[in-house]
Amino acid sequence: MIEWFAVDLIKQAGELIRREIDQSYEVERKTGKGDLVTEIDRAVEQLIVHRIQEAFPHHQIMGEEGTTDSPDTLTGTVWFVDPIDGTLNFIHQKRMFAISVAIMIDGAVEYGFVYDVMADEMFMARKGFGATLNGRMLTTLHEHQVRDAFLSMNATWVTPNHQIAPEILAPIVRDSIGTRAHGAASLELAWLAAGRVDGYITMRNMPWDYAAGKLLVEEVGGRVVSVYGEPIQYDSKTSVLAGSESFVNDVIKHYVIAKGVTAEAKPDLHIVEQES
Ligand code: IPD
Ligand code: CA
Ligand code: CA
Ligand code: CA
């Protein structure tokens, strides 16, 4: 079965990372000082891509580190692969990063896997069948409002940035019971599914960051949309707002729309110009 193939593959990739993490490896800068890729990211993606291509030559693969072409259309079976989600954590903290893999079949994500390599925690979801953590079923999310939510959000989004005016998200930070910046989108969504945080907000994620985690959250009754409340697509970068139904509604209604910001008005938010 495809899910056990995926689990075996991800665990093998995890062993590779644990073996290499204390060795010296090359680090390259991609677009900016915080956007790095290591030799290990590339090696893990190659391992995963090679095994998928060997077993399923007709499947398409969308991997972060560019060893595959982006599929032209999201038809047939498409694998979304982030070999190390949280590369900065991998380099600096040697923990709190994940391998994120999702399998989309005919336009719908059917399987999602987020593997916390150093904690040896495998989060898995199958569409319509729920989500598990190391084989144990995860339970339905508790409903939260912003005022009683423990949040995961990068501090970048309350500083001047290209994506959103800081005053839109700062009140959410102020009103919540606490905010943490964990630095690995897939893991933050997996922790949300496991009830370890109550909300996750980011203004910039790619499909390989959220495809698996989104299914995990949805399989425990949560909702994942853009911060403007739009459905999330899998073909480009997007903002991500995730949490229980009431948390997501609270954010959109009382913090985003209340400031006069809607999906249609969002281009007006590109008001701050700075190098990232
Ligand atoms: C990044 C992490 C980070 C998120 C970025 C991602 P990477 O992934 O998930 O938490 O804020 O948007 O690009 O580059 O470490 O795989
Ligand atoms: Ca990256
Ligand atoms: Ca990532
Ligand atoms: Ca990555």
From TrEMBL:
<keyword id="KW-0808">Transferase</keyword>
<keyword id="KW-0479">Metal-binding</keyword>
<keyword id="KW-0012">Acyltransferase</keyword>
<dbReference type="GO" id="GO:0016746">
    <property type="term" value="F:acyltransferase activity"/>
</dbReference>
<keyword id="KW-0378">Hydrolase</keyword>
<protein>
    <recommendedName>
        <fullName>inositol-phosphate phosphatase</fullName>
        <ecNumber>3.1.3.25</ecNumber>
    </recommendedName>
</protein>
<keyword id="KW-0460">Magnesium</keyword>
